[in-house]
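Late entry, evening session. Most of the bench is empty. Finally got around to the prediction I had been postponing all week. Sequence below, unchanged from the version circulated by S.P.
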Amino acid sequence: MAASSPGLCHRRARQAGWTWAAGFDIIRRAVFTEWINLAQNRRLTSDYTLFRQSLPAIWGGCEGLVQTGRMRTELVTEPGDPDRPNEDFAAIGLPASGQGGALVLLDGVTPPAAGTGCLHSVPWYTARLGGALTELSVSLRDVPLTELLATAISRTAEAHAQTCDLSHPRTPQATVVLARWSPATVEHLVLSDSALLTESPEGTVTAHLDDRLSRVPRAWLTTDAIADATVRNKEGGFFTAAADPSVASRAVTGSLPRDGVRALAALTDGATRWVEKFTEGDWTACFTAVRKEGAGALVHRVRELERADADAGRPRLGRGKTHDDATVAYVEL
């Protein structure tokens, strides 16, 4: 029995949702030290009883382990037009330490027909910016989210500054949702009109939004030229991540206690249409649909509503696209 004890401890640890942070030797020492103590005192008469008796001491001696439990994650993205590249980006990163994680979601801004002053596409930009944010958010755990976003924007800008006009108001850009959790906190950052939803252990859903675009007078958004000249990335208007790293300071940010968040979901505005355009339910109903039916089910609901609205003469969508890229990222902590 003694020869197989490390394997038993390994299996018990895995079943309990533990991962190795300090190595197998911690387990080995804890198991055999406690077993020898008990055996020498002749308090137990069978290997099985010995194992059961020593289990609390085994766990107590394993300070180098990190309990991670099980985590449900789900990512769904669907282009608005199958003939056009999807401009959204989403990723979930889990550091090798097993402590915490991060969620990144971007919604690329569809460029006007007149061009952007850039040789690169919006999907190229969101892939670069999203990739940088994913790396930085899991590797620089102590750096504030606004600094991470500023660094990612700078890194992306440097990648095409020599070939493109980054001062153009429609240089490739994107909305941003960034969430990062640790054993103590859940931090968030939202820039422009994508959404982050958090659910408490009691089931209360909170929407973390940057609502500046919704407060801009519709007359200022009549044409791309008017929007670019008056409100896009301008004081009194709204902000997106483009080539200027200082925009990171404009993001909506906050932090919640880790034990106050059971799950979270990030949605691009192609998915938030279910709430904001079609008013099929509030944010709580939206979150519940994702949790119970899955992220793909919410996107499917939106597509059905979009088709019905188009058939009815577009009373809800107005001048907007019939279908927009729709992305949903869901995490149960």
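Two things to note before I forget:
The CA atoms of residues 30 and 60 lie 8 Å apart.
The longest strand covers residues 101-108.
Will write this up properly tomorrow.
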